[in-house]
Amino acid sequence: MSETLPVSAIKNGTVIDHIAPGQALRIIHLLGLQNSTNKVTIGLHLPSKSMGSKDLIKIESRILSDAEANEIVVFSPAATINVIRDFEVQEKVRTRLPSSMKRVFLCPNSACITHSESVASYFYIAEDRKQIKLTCHYCEKSFDRDQVRVSI
User: pTM higher than 0.90, yes or no?
Assistant: First the structure.
């Protein structure tokens, strides 16, 4: 017998599905949802037929901007983003990897000027053999996506 635990549907808002396992909390911080009054449902390491396991985020009463949707690709290139209205998927958001991002990440290089001066972080983003690489504009060092923390 198969047991399933339902994740409640939302009436209006955004569903981010097929998030790479372990990336949902980073996306929560990216979108500032930890400080939001929106109702948020988070599923971590849920079973997935296509991925083995996945994360999921449902955000009530909030539609992501195109820029926010594209930034999610940095954390999970295969994520799907759906706009929900009256409990139905009304739109599937098309995303693309942004070429750069400002004020989102903290540079892991302790000698970087961003640690001693009041300048906003700025990273160039590229995909290299299916891995997301971020290069700091200031110190010019490259990092794997998982090495870079989201600024809070």
Answer: no
